[in-house]
Every structure is written in C-alpha cells, then in structure tokens.
Amino acid sequence: MEQLFNFGISQDDALTESKALEIKKGDRLLCVASAGEVPLNMLANHELRIDAVDISINQIYLSQLKLHSIQSLEPQEAAKFIGFMESTPEERRKLFQKVTEMLDKNEKLFWHKNIKAIEEGPIRVARFEKYIAKFGWIALNIIRKKRFLKLFELDSIESQQEYFDRYLSTGFLRNIFKFAFHPRIYKNRGMDARGLKHSGKRNIALFFYNRFRDFCSSTPARYNYLLQFTFFNKVLFPEALPDYLAEEGISRILKNYSKLTFRQVSYNQAIIQSHKGEFNKFALSNLCDWMENIEFTELLNLIKEKADFNSRLLSRYIHNNYPIEKDLTKYFKPNYEFGEMLVHSDRYPFYSLVPIEYNSSGFS
Question: Does residue 323 form part of some domain?
C-alpha cells in the first residue's frame, strides 16, 4: 500500500504540452502514462490518437481506472471516487461497484487486492502525494489557511504575485522547503531514488522554493487543480478540476476513447515496436531525470528512425538535461527560449521545458 504508486497525479501540464507540441486534429502522440493526466486531458481537448506507456503496471492500472470512472460515473462522482474531492470510504466503495463493470480481469484483481486505496481515493495514496500532503498541512498552519485561501479570490496574475510577495513569502516557508526537500529526507520517502540520481550536490530545496512563487501566482490560482491539491489534498473549486472531469471534456473522451491506448512498455520499446511515421508528437515527460546519457541518445536515434518526417517533441527536466549529440543536431532543433516562456504559464512550473522540432531532411 505504502508504495502502490509513485505518482497519483501527473505533474505535466497538458495545456503546456499542447502548446509546445502544437497539437492539432489528427496528430499521433506517444506520451508517458504516469498517472494519466496528460493523455486524458489531451483527449478531452483534442481529436488525436494517443499511445500512453509506462514501465509500471500499477501506474497503468491507475490511469485506466481514471478513464473507467469517466465512462461509468457522473463528473462529480468521478472526482470524488478518484480522490480529487472529499468522499467517504463507503461512498467510494459504492462508486467502485459501478466502475468495476468496465474493468478487465487483471484490473479487478489488482483493485480488489488494494481496496483500501479505493476507499481513500487512489490518487491520495501515492508516494509523492502522501509526502507532499504532510508538508502542505504544515505550510498552511504557518502561513495561516485563511490567508492562503485569499489567493484564490484574486482576479489577476498581477494581484496574485503582489499578494504572494506581501503575505506568503516568509522565512518559515523557506525552512519548510529546506527540510522537506533535503536529499536524505526526500529520497525514497517523497521520490523514488532513481528519479534523483542526477540531482548531484545542487540545492534542490532552493530550486523548488524559487519556482514556488510561479506555482502560486503565474496562473489563475482558482483554476489550478495542481496547486489546490498540493495544499489541501483536494480540489477546492469544481471549475478547477482537470479537463477530463469537466462535462465538455468527458463528452469528447466518451466519443474518442477508442483512440487512447495504455500499455505497460518502456518509451524506447514503444518506438521500436512502432512503424515508420506512426507518431508525429512525442511528450517525453522528464525521462532525462531517469535516463543515462546513452539511453537518451538512443531515444533520439529511435525517434529519428521511426518518427514522421516533421515531428515535435517536448522534454521536461528538473535535475538533468542532456545536450543533443553532435551528429543529431542536424535533425533535432531545441527551442530553449520558447521553453522558458512556456514555464511561466505552466500550472506546475517546477520543470524546465525543452521543445524540440524534428525534421527528417535536416535543418540547414
């Protein structure tokens, strides 16, 4: 139970992915499944084909559960069942009975074995979310809950930024970051150690704190479900729920869900198994943080071999960004300036972004 998932919510903002990848009707996207937010939000907003892959079968089961809840429940029921909104163990078990009809044999076995995760709201039992919830509670007590809630009443980015600087930026908050993201504490408790192998000796706590202002004030706080869940372990306002839990988004998903596939396979292997030109958009998440240089270079070589002639990629990273090998620079063109601009409108701006254009004929 303790380590059932690494992530209950994908932190990659699908709105940013859409901008960086220039998503349009008919695109073919390969993305990391993680907890399902990117593929589900993409399908809620665009008509495209999506292959979402992950090496963890548990993350695949969680992502599929979210899709099945959309297919089985009313929007607010699905939000309660998944864990974005408050509910009781009894109510979630009743909702699970409706969702069960959509599950295959292996999914049923998994979720019945882990029924406590259903009762608590499955996104709430993940390693990262459980860890952050503890420090979110501490931060709220230091800042004062009423003071933080005021942030969600403001009607402009400028007013949020001014409010943050005046009332929320404190030395006490910096100290919470120092403790929560100290490598000895954060490693394995809040993050799988493999995701921190490239962090080196850098001050992770200071990096996260410097990005924290943007998290609180660079996008409308009232509509940022990632911000609200981080501090309150729930979404405060229904209008902030992910697009795949909004009526319009659900309508699109129910119409096009056959175009979404979840598979337990590595990202590299998914490309190997694809045919030439099968994908033209590649959301890499922060694979750089988990891969070695040779693996990332192999990934780009695979994309060069299999991607459509004119494709786009988005790579995220917190700890590590590999430079593109010299013999590949003719085909892959990163746009760091565009990535820096996108960070400032990302709803979870703790990642650096590298949009990359691929051209099979090469750039002059």
Answer: no
Instruction: Give the Å distances, CA to CA, from 319 to 3, 33, 103, 194, 202.
Output: 23, 21, 37, 12, 9
Distance in angstroms (rounded) separating the CA atoms of residues 92 and 108? 15
Identity of the residue numbered 154:
L
Domain that holds residue 234: 127-240
Q: What is the pTM of this model?
A: 0.92
Instruction: With respect to residue 271, please indicate whether it lies within any of the assigned structural domains.
Output: no
Integer Cα distance of 128 and 130 in angstroms = 6
> How many independent structural domains does the chain possess?
1
How far is 191 from 189, CA to CA, in rounded Å?
A: 6
**Residue 155 falls inside a structural domain:** yes
> pLDDT tens, position by position, for the chain (364 residues)?
458 999 999 999 999 999 999 999 999 999 999 999 999 999 999 999 999 999 999 999 999 999 999 999 999 999 999 999 999 999 999 999 999 999 999 999 999 999 999 999 999 999 889 888 877 777 787 778 899 999 999 999 999 999 999 988 876 777 767 656 656 655 555 444 454 444 445 666 777 777 888 999 999 999 999 999 998 999 999 999 999 999 999 999 999 999 999 999 999 999 999 999 999 999 999 999 888 899 999 999 999 999 999 999 999 998 888 889 999 999 999 999 999 999 999 999 999 999 999 999 998 7
Residue 361 belongs to some domain of the structure: no
Distances (CA, A) of 55 to 14, 252, 296, 331: 21, 27, 16, 28
